[in-house]
Design brief:
The protein is built from one helix and three strands, in the order E-E-E-H. The protein is α+β, with helices and mostly antiparallel strands. The chain has one domain (about 5-85): Thiol Ester Dehydrase, Chain A (Roll). Strands 1-2-3 form a three-stranded antiparallel β-sheet, covered by helices on one side.
Length: about 90
Amino acid sequence: MIGDLVEVEARLAYTGTTSMNISVEVRSGDMKGGSMEKTTECLVVFVSVDSHGRPLQVEAFVPGTPGEMALAERAKAHLDASRAAGATP
């Protein structure tokens, strides 16, 4: 709604050999009431490339908490499902 507060949280979820997968969650709500509810979420994939556009290896992300581990597993499952369906993330 017009006038609502919008909050965006982005967290590194998973790394491939040359890609970083960022989990993004958007919440919104009335600033006066204080309650926020999730309005959307997505997984954004960035591929690291050099000045010639060739993929570069990225440093591996090692999840350190149970929440990070669950998020990494969810991101990997999503990527695997996309690949199996023929998409190219």
